[in-house]
Specification:
Elements: H1 8-11, H2 28-33, H3 37-82, H4 91-96, H5 109-129, H6 136-154, H7 160-211, E1 213-214, H8 218-227, H9 231-239, H10 241-251, E2 254-267, E3 271-283, E4 289-304, E5 307-315
Antiparallel strand pairs: 1-2, 2-3, 3-4, 4-5
Biased composition (Acidic residues): 84-99, 121-130
GO cellular component, one term: membrane
Keywords: Membrane, Transmembrane, Transmembrane helix
C-alpha cells in the first residue's frame, strides 16, 4: 500500500502559532491552484481499497475457475471409469482458456463498486467451493466399482444349480467310464474263457490221439498223430512213423486212454501250454492185461490255421 506523508505547511497551517506577520502572503490564484491535502489522502485511500478489491476479485475468480475445473475432471474420471467414452481432449483447454477480466486500479469509483459487488458474489461462491473436497475419492470409488463389475462379468460366481449340474455331469461320465471298463473286462474275461476252453479241449484230444493205439489200425493211428501235430514234433514223428507202426503191430499193442483232468497253465492268442492228467490201460502179447497206469503230460499247443495242434509233448512227474 503506498504511503503519503502530510505536509506540515499545509495540514498544520491553521494550528501552528504565528510568531510574527507573514513575510510572503499567497495570492488568491495560488490558493485556488493548490490541492487540498485531505481530499488527496481520501482519494489515495479509495484507490488502494479499489485495488485490494480488484485483487480479491481476481483471486476469487481464479479459485472459482480452479474449483470448476477440478469438478469437471472428477466427473469425467467417474464417467470414463463407469463407461469409457472418447471425449475431445480440448475440454481441459477450454477451462484453462477462460478469460477473467481484471479491473484496473485506476477505474472510476462506479466501476470499482460494480467490481466490488462481483467480487463479493465471487467470494461467496469461492467460500462454498473452498470446502474440503476429496477429488480422488470419486475416481477411486468409480474405478473400484468398475473393477468389481468386470470381475463379476468375467468370472461368474457358481450357483447351487450350477454345482449340482456339474456334479451330475461328472457322475454321469464316471458311471459311463466305469460301465465301459466293466464291459471291456467282461468281454476280455469271456474271450479268455473261450480260449482256455479251446486250448483245454485241444490238449485233451492231443493226449488221447497220441497215447491211444491199436495194432490192427496202426497206420491210421500214426496218421492221426501226424495230422494233429505241427512244427518240429511233426517232423520228428514223420521220420519215425513206419518204425512206430511196425513195433505196434509186432507187439500187438492195444492202448486205451482216459483223460482225468486238464488245465491251461499259460496262453496267448496263438499258443498255450496245457497240463493233462491221464490214465492208460495196455493190452499186449507180453501179457499185460489192461493194467491202469497214470500219466502227467505237458503239452505245447500252437494255432495252425483254424486248428490248434500239439507242437511238443513231455512227460512230467
Amino acid at each position: 500500500m503506498p504511503s503519503f506523508r502530510r505536509k506540515a505547511s499545509v495540514t498544520d497551517a491553521g494550528s501552528a502559532p504565528v510568531s510574527g506577520p507573514p513575510t510572503d502572503k499567497a495570492s488568491p490564484a495560488d490558493a485556488q491552484d493548490r490541492p487540498d491535502p485531505a481530499l488527496a489522502q481520501i482519494l489515495a485511500e479509495e484507490a488502494e481499497a479499489e485495488a485490494a478489491e480488484a485483487e480479491a476479485a481476481v483471486a476469487a475468480a481464479r479459485a472459482r475457475a480452479r474449483a470448476l475445473r477440478l469438478r469437471r475432471q472428477a466427473q469425467e474420471a467417474e464417467a470414463s471409469a463407469v463407461e469409457p467414452v472418447d471425449e475431445p481432449a480440448a475440454a481441459d483447454d477450454d477451462d484453462d482458456d477462460e478469460i477473467v477480466s481484471v479491473p484496473d486500479a485506476g477505474e472510476t469509483p462506479a466501476a470499482g463498486t460494480a467490481a466490488a459487488n462481483d467480487a463479493a458474489a465471487a467470494d461467496d461462491d469461492a467460500a462454498a467451493e473452498d470446502e474440503p473436497v476429496d477429488i480422488d475419492a470419486p475416481a477411486e470409488e468409480a474405478a473400484e466399482t468398475h473393477s468389481r463389475r468386470r470381475l463379476h462379468v468375467g468370472v461368474p460366481l457358481p450357483t447351487w444349480k450350477g454345482v449340482a449340474l456339474f456334479l451330475a455331469v461328472l457322475c454321469t461320465f464316471a458311471l459311463l467310464a466305469a460301465s465301459g471298463y466293466m464291459i471291456r473286462e467282461h468281454r476280455q474275461a469271456e474271450r479268455d474263457a473261450q480260449l482256455a476252453a479251446e486250448y483245454t479241449a485241444a490238449g485233451r484230444q492231443a493226449v488221447i490221439t497220441l497215447m491211444s493205439l491199436d495194432f490192427n489200425k496202426a497206420e491210421e493211428g500214426v496218421q492221426r498223430i501226424i495230422d494233429n501235430s505241427t512244427g518240429k514234433f511233426r517232423e520228428d514223428f514223420q521220420q519215425q512213423a513206419e518204425t512206430f507202426a511196425q513195433v505196434a503191430q509186432d507187439s500187438k499193442v492195444i492202448t486205451e486212454v482216459t483223460v482225468n483232468s486238464a488245465a491251461v497253465r499259460t496262453m496267448t492268442d496263438d499258443t498255450a501250454n496245457v497240463i493233462v492228467s491221464a490214465t492208460s490201460r495196455v493190452t499186449n502179447a507180453a501179457g499185460a492185461n489192461k493194467d491202469p497206469r497214470g500219466w502227467r503230460l505237458s503239452v505245447d499247443l500252437e494255432r495252425d490255421g483254424d486248428q490248434v495242434k500239439m507242437s511238443r509233448v513231455e512227460f512230467v512227474p
